[in-house]
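Narrative of activities, Objective 1.

The group set out to show that a structural description can be obtained from nothing but a protein's sequence at a throughput compatible with the screening campaign. Below is one input-output pair from the validation batch, recorded exactly as produced.
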Amino acid sequence: MVLVPNGAAVWWASRKLRTVYPRREARALSVAFGVVTPVSLLVALAVSPMFGYSELVLGRSFVLVGVFVGIVALTTLLTFFVCVLVLRVTRLAISVEQGDRP
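Output recorded for this entry:
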């Protein structure tokens, strides 16, 4: 159930990234996104009971909203940070291969 939307998102992201980044960087980002998104979603689902404590601040009727927003925010942040790390490492690898850095 997760693989089909994730595969479609990776395909779409790959096409969009190729317009901005060179082919190697776009491919690395697409693969990182495809691998990390399900993993970060599993981590967010495991941590989601912590977001249920939003009822203490917002009231009992906002428990599900707090959990949903927490899952979305955590998945987004984890995926973003890993993709930024992959982009930096890929750029570093490309510059080392080209002899720009010692």
